[in-house]
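re: ur question from yesterday

yeah so i grabbed the chain u mentioned. its 207 aa long if i counted rite. heres the sequnce exactly as i have it in my notes:
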Amino acid sequence: MSEQERLRIFDEHKNDIGVASRSEVHRKGYWHEAFHCWFVKNEEGTNYIYLQLRSKNKKDYPDLLDITAAGHLLASETVEDGVREIKEEIGIVVEFSDLISLGVTDYCVTREDLIDKEFANVFLYKSENNFEDFTLQVEEVSGIVRARFSDFAQLWYGERDEIEINGIEINENGKKVEKEEMVNRNHFVPHPISFYNVIIQKIGEQI
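ran it thru and got these structure tokens back, copy pasting raw so excuse formatting
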């Protein structure tokens, strides 16, 4: 998304206060809306959560694991329009009606060069897709991996230090290669731990 894309902005009570560019939103710390979709899949009785690996070329949080598909909602978009992020980033076509709403989660991350205050419209998608079904937008996403949901929960609840992930990654030659490794919290986008814990609880209630 361009730094000049226009986003709708809000006060802390979610009252609409206008429109601003993405760069201004992050510079001044305006509240804005985002769309998050987490994929889960049950295989032979085990629930897996799917994560995207952000491209090494991303300005923010390059080469870190993140929500399966997510992005800002433009000023002209509704929450339902957010499904475009899924198709754009990971190449899976999903109908909004197939998503399970996990509600709106607000959170704030402040860095030296960015104030990110999001009202995140969070959804769950119970996927039947295999790794070969994913077509990654390599400018944004360089891989898609999965972890056992129970392991993911234990990692963010502080019950274990690292977990196993496996999936696919696009290498320097543009080819899909298998990816398997052990990761810890430092391999993930540093959303607040409270954010991960809320999401884990809400997903757990649905699977």
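noticed a couple things. DSSP finds four helices and eleven strands in the chain. also The chain has a mean pLDDT of 95.
anyway ttyl
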